[in-house]
Amino acid sequence: DSGVTQTPKHLITATGQRVTLRCSPRSGDLSVYWYQQSLDQGLQFLIQYYNGEERAKGNILERFSAQQFPDLHSELNLSSLELGDSALYFCASSPGGGSVSGYTFGSGTRLTVV
Amino acid sequence: GENVEQHPSTLSVQEGDSAVIKCTYSDSASNYFPWYKQELGKRPQLIIDIRSNVGEKKDQRIAVTLNKTAKHFSLHITETQPEDSAVYFCAASQGGKLIFGQGTELSVKP
């Protein structure tokens, strides 16, 4: 157990729908990062939050949004889903905003859009 | 922004041989370079990392080297075992977030 908790583990939904993925960071970590991993693809950085504030944005689509709550858990919202959004979505956490030592991944949410 | 290139995309070795995976990065300000191992369907797990003030780091059969001037770093696995078979990702830190290479699928044949 890495200490980073992601729910749900699997999600199957139809095109056009909206889903919410949840991540609880490791105890004491303030930063949460979201990554998308499509089939045969690497880990694409989506977005980072630090202590409730957005810190960095990657190649995140406008249909996707995220937030980090006061208890530091984070949610990634995916809307108007398309077949191409099917992927593994990982969240990771680390202790501080400027340091990436101790970057730990959760087990991921496998999203299937049908 | 940072861009990380990783080679080769696939690597097949015989058990007991060594394996080398190479990465280059673009942002000279990057200062932290971890390597992750990902088994099929599982989360990436950190196996070794190196900071920009160090040229080499070893942990048992695994070593990482960094050449800041050339902006490249490499993972070396010696005496490979079948359980080393997985996808390996390099990454570079840019402003507190990690940018990953495309991954190398390592296959160790018994």
Descriptive tags:
heterodimer; A: 114 residues; seven-stranded mixed sheet; four-stranded antiparallel sheet; B: 110 residues; mainly beta; six-stranded mixed sheet; five-stranded antiparallel sheet; 59% strand; globular
Description:
The complex is a heterodimer of chains A (114) and B (110). Chain A is mainly β and 114 residues long. Chain A is built from no helices and 11 strands. Chain A has strands at residues 5-7, 10-13, 19-24, 31-37, 44-50, 53-57, 64-68, 74-78, 87-94, 104-105, 109-113. In chain A, the strands form 2 sheets. In chain A, strands 2, 4, 5, 6, 9, 10 and 11 form a 7-stranded mixed sheet that branches. Chain A has a 4-stranded antiparallel sheet with strand order 1-3-8-7, with no helix packed on it. In chain A, a hairpin with a 5-residue loop joins strand 7 (64-68) and strand 8. The N and C termini of chain A lie far apart (30 Å). In chain A, 39% of the residues are buried. With 110 residues, chain B is mostly beta strands. Helix content of chain B is 0%, strand content 59%. Chain B is built from no helices and 11 strands. In chain B, strands 2, 4, 5, 9, 10 and 11 form a 6-stranded mixed sheet that branches. A 5-stranded antiparallel sheet of chain B has the order 1-3-8-7-6, with no helix packed on it. Chain B is globular and about 40 Å long. The relative contact order of chain B is 0.34. The model of chain B has no long low-confidence stretch (mean pLDDT 94). Classes of the chains: A mainly beta (114), B mainly beta (110).
Q: Which band does the percent of strand residues of chain A land in? A: over 45%
Oligomer: heterodimer
Largest interface: A-B, 27 and 20 residues
Q: What is the straight-line distance between the termini of chain B?
A: 41 Å
Number of strands of chain A: 11
How many helix segments of chain B? 0
Major sheet details of chain B: 6 strands, mixed
SSE run of chain A: EEEEEEEEEEE
Which residues of chain A sit in consecutive blocks of at least 5 with pLDDT less than 50?
Answer: none
Give the overall form of chain B: globular
The ordered H/E elements of chain B are EEEEEEEEEEE
**Termini Cα gap of chain A:** 30 Å
Give a short account of the largest sheet of chain A. 7 strands, mixed
The unreliable regions of chain B are none
Number of strands of chain B: 11
Return the structural class of chain A. Answer: mainly beta
